[in-house]
Design a protein that fits this description.
Blueprint: H1 10-20, H2 27-42, H3 44-57, H4 60-63, H5 65-112, H6 115-121, H7 123-165, H8 167-214, H9 216-221, H10 225-277, H11 283-305, H12 307-324, H13 330-335, E1 336-337, E2 342-352, E3 355-365, E4 370-374, H14 381-389, E5 396-402, E6 405-409, H15 419-424, H16 432-441, H17 445-450, H18 468-482, E7 486-490, H19 501-512, E8 516-520, H20 524-529, E9 532-537, E10 540-545, H21 547-553, H22 556-567
Parallel strand pairs: 1-5, 4-8, 4-9, 6-7, 7-8
Antiparallel strand pairs: 2-3, 2-5, 9-10
């Protein structure tokens, strides 16, 4: 059963967003001043129109004010538009910049997470957070930020403006506000768990898709297409169910908002009628109050309508920050020693409860010594190599290794970039001469010469296709450029065909020469060339010694060697 990566609390999200904001604290007060100015300019129009009504009602005595009020309203409209635009762009820039920092922090943390933690969560979880959740927040910013920032100031300034016209209008507005608060509270109570479940269901759907696509050859070979499609369909339907629940919550939310608007308009009309009838107010004042209230529809509805986007974005932010605040692998750092020796003491490891992969394994690799690990499939060789390299943390036992470690497996990734960048990622300051020398030393000079543009040749998904053996040569050249103290090769020559096997084994021997090395041998010729051989059987060390001594002992290794050499 997968264990998803954690979700961050609201407090953690707020702290990470604050840290991610661009430097320059003065931008926030400046933004507040601009938005406040835009809100103040926005209420000038309704107040001026109310004054126009009273001026026209006064006949010739107030007629001379109309042109002046028209100019004031025009200037206010222009100021509102300009300041709103400046505030919107500034707020969006701040939020987009913060999101970029959060995204980079999440990717950085994801790359530092122990592989076992990512495997427990499923790679779909991390990919969904880096893709779907970042996209959700990015899409929400242009809708949510202008609405929330602008509406907060507009509502506050408008309430003050209504109080200026007559305090009773502000009282009516405040009396209706509990309905809005009730609607929002109900929504905030019901929506967050539904949105969180919807995002988690999307992660599960992504995981099922990845599993099917990555294992498509196995799916085809064993006729598993039906079962895999069934799982994808089930995960997709779960997403639909949660999405429909979210839509239902939205519809009930909007119905409550419409009720609040009706109550507000009715209350203001009644208050205006009473005030005008009692000569306590003017028709212009009632007009201004109603226009101000109608003007509130936009900001209030904008905020409430984007509450849906806001909740979804906050749920995604919680998932993004959850990755950022996930504990990385201090065990690996603590296990590093300023020595070229490797020591595994009484290591026991399980991936699932009740199924032990390694049983009390102890192994010491001396400085500049190469130890080969052999055994049947499922003996625990890859797990031992991963623990020795620091990819997995053992369930029990102690591991001590040098600080600098390089791991090469049979699955090598070629990045979608130039040949040079595929190699210099192991040593960013390597010169072209050093890169070419590394290729020559691992026997990949033929690869260099066959590529028309040499080191500038694009390779990977959209570039020149490399063979499995060529990809392994690149991985081994990276080892030479990185120059680690400890090298782990986990069947790094397994992808080579019979014609390439010899050259790739020589390349592997070059990569480990003069270094401390653990080699999971795909061919026993690698074991014969090692300083020492360890035979694993069902997670236990059965035999250990030099190749010649183990052959002479006549045990399992000797029989394995006889069978292999005979087939060769």
């Amino acid at each position: 059963m997968s264990i998803p990566l954690p979700l961050a609390s609201a407090g953690d999200v707020a702290r990470e967003v604050w840290r991610a904001l661009p430097r320059g604290w003065w931008r926030l007060p400046a933004l507040a001043a601009v938005v406040l100015g835009a809100a103040a300019a926005g209420i000038v129009g309704p107040l001026a129109l109310g004054t126009v009504v009273d001026a026209l009602g006064a006949g010739e005595r107030g007629a001379h004010l109309v042109p002046l009020l028209a100019v004031v309203m025009s200037v206010a409209v222009v100021a509102n538009v300009v300041l709103t635009a400046i505030g919107t762009v500034t707020a969006s820039h701040l939020c987009e910049s913060a999101l970029a920092v959060l995204r980079e922090s999440m990717v950085e943390t994801g790359l530092r997470l122990p592989q076992e933690r990512i495997e427990r969560a499923g790679t779909g979880d991390l990919i969904a957070r880096a893709g779907d959740d970042v996209a959700e927040v990015s899409d929400a910013i242009p809708r949510v930020v202008p609405a929330v920032v602008g509406a907060a100031f507009t509502i506050a300034v408008t309430v003050v403006g209504m109080a200026v016209v007559d305090p009773w209008y502000a009282v009516v507005l405040l009396a209706v506000s509990p309905v809005h608060v009730w609607a929002v509270r109900r929504y905030l109570r019901d929506a967050p768990p539904v949105y969180a479940a919807e995002r988690a269901a999307m992660s599960e759907r992504a995981q099922q898709l990845l599993d099917a696509l990555r294992g498509r050859e196995t799916v085809r070979a064993f006729g598993l297409a039906g079962s895999r499609l069934s799982r994808i369909s089930e995960a997709s339907w779960t997403v639909v169910q949660w999405s429909m629940r979210a839509r239902g919550i939205q519809n009930r939310f909007f119905a409550r908002l419409n009720g609040a608007e009706f109550l507000g308009m009715a209350g203001l009309l009644i208050a205006g009628f009473v005030l005008v009838s009692a000569d306590a107010g003017t028709l212009g004042g009632t007009t201004a109050a109603m226009l101000l209230f109608l003007r509130l529809f936009g900001p209030i509805n904008q905020v409430l309508f984007v509450t849906d986007d806001l909740q979804s974005a906050l749920a995604s932010l919680g998932r993004i920050v959850g990755v950022i605040r996930t504990e990385t692998a201090p065990e690996r750092e603590a296990a590093g020693v300023a020595s070229d020796t490797v020591h595994l003491a009484k290591v026991t490891h399980s991936f699932v409860p009740g199924v032990t992969v390694l049983h009390n394994v102890s192994l010491r690799i001396g400085a500049h010594e190469t130890v080969a690990v052999v055994g049947a499939s499922g003996a625990g060789k890859t797990t031992l190599a991963a623990i020795a390299a620091g990819v997995h943390t053992p369930g029990r036992g102690e591991v001590r290794r040098p600080y600098s470690v390089a791991l090469v497996t049979q699955d090598v990734h070629v990045f979608d970039t130039t040949l040079r960048e595929n190699l210099t990622l192991a040593a960013a300051d390597a010169t072209d001469a050093e890169v070419r020398d590394a290729l020559i030393r691992v026997g990949a000079d033929a690869l260099f010469t066959r590529l028309a543009r040499g080191l500038d040749e694009p390779v990977g998904a959209s570039g020149t296709t490399l063979t499995a053996a060529e990809a392994q040569h690149i991985a081994l050249a990276r080892v030479l450029l990185a120059d680690p103290a400890f090298v782990v090769l986990d069947e790094a020559t397994a992808e080579a065909g019979s014609s390439e096997a010899g050259r790739l084994e020589e390349a592997a021997a070059t990569a480990v020469r003069g270094r401390t090395a653990l080699v999971v041998a795909h061919r026993l010729s690698q074991a014969a060339a090692a300083d020492r051989v360890v035979l694993l059987d069902r997670g236990r060390v059965r035999e250990e010694g030099t190749h010649d001594r183990l052959r002479a002992a006549g045990g399992d290794y000797a029989r394995l060697w006889a069978a292999w050499s005979g087939s060769e």
